[in-house]
């Protein structure tokens, strides 16, 4: 089972790949929209990327609750 | 049992020529801000679209389709009496019967052609091309004229800040005929009717007529974006695999121009080399539904960015949901 830090690091690579955000900026307390300037379309891509990378399913109604990097990491930890 | 003769045709088919038509009225993002609370920057960032063309008085799906078809026929050098079928792909011919294709064939001077319309939204050109390829290779038609014509501006909801800026009008056409070498790879196509609510006509005609309203085009942008950047990326890869083409053998990529951001994601997934020329006509023309791919093909060939004989991947996807893609040799 991957650690929180391993999941965060892999997610950071994904966010960098999709939205060009530097990997070191993708920390647990950061909000995707407010801090990392990730817009709604990029967010869809990041969540699709998470589904592939971590083998989880993120329903649309769940995705709007994933506001911070920490929210996403916690969701992946709980569902992978 | 009595033997029934079967039709036989040439081994291969290819696109012999392409033509396109754009209407005269240029609509920039600023113009749309009178209807929606948005900004030029927001629209450009999320879609790549800076302007689009809409029909003006005297222009229609018929005039655009005829102009594109005339150009394609002229460039093909094929005499009109050797065109045995005319397929029009459209979702914006708002007169259900008769189909528009027979009228277009008549106006083009094509005698006694099989002629019909198909409805496969933004995948319509690739659907029509797949049919044309099959018709030529089976001997059911010597040449097939495939036209994609759309005037989505007529059903665009100008008050919908998710779609008001997306669509442009236009038409594209190709002539498909026999070839010594193969110019159209196996089609990869399909549909997912469980997502018929992702892009839809807001009201059926009966309901609209009863209410005295006019239907619009609705879209769940998030659902479409998710599908296009995951499932369609895989379908595009499959079209290359089935044609036996690797990314380094590809010269040109013409995805349906739905959104520049979808194109970016497809490129990342397909890992196409930087040398591949990528269609970005959405920036000036918007999303032209079925007409997008042949319009972009003509634009790239006319500007010299793409050249005749090059290998291109095309893939269309849209309301249905439906999709279709092929690897082709550019005319």
Summarize the structure.
Chain A is mostly helical. Chain A has helices at 4-19, 40-54, 60-63, 69-79.
What would you note in describing this structure?
The complex is a heterodimer of chains A (80) and B (331). By secondary structure, chain A is mainly alpha-helical. Chain A contains four helices and no strands. Chain A has helices at residues 4-19, 40-54, 60-63, 69-79. In chain A, α1 crosses α2 (40-54) and α1 packs across α4 (69-79). Chain A has a single domain (4-79), classed as Non-ribosomal Peptide Synthetase Peptidyl Carrier Protein, Chain A (Orthogonal Bundle), CATH 1.10.1200.10. The relative contact order of chain A is 0.20. The model of chain A has no long low-confidence stretch (mean pLDDT 90). In chain A, 57% of the residues lie in helices and 0% in strands. With 331 residues, chain B is of the alpha/beta class. Chain B folds into two domains: 12-179, Peroxisomal Thiolase, Chain A, domain 1 (3-Layer(aba) Sandwich); 188-329, Thiolase/Chalcone synthase (Peroxisomal Thiolase, Chain A, domain 1), CATH 3.40.47.10. In chain B, the strands form four sheets. A five-stranded mixed β-sheet of chain B has the order 1-7-6-4-5, sandwiched between helices. In chain B, strands 8-14-13-11-12 form a five-stranded mixed β-sheet, sandwiched between helices. In chain B, α4 (101-107) links the parallel β4 and β5 (114-118). The longest helix of chain B has 23 residues, at 221-243. The radius of gyration of chain B is 19 Å and the shape is globular. The A-B interface holds A 17-18, 39-42, 44-45, 48, 52, 60 and B 45-46, 222-223, 225-226, 229-230, 259, 261, 265, 268.
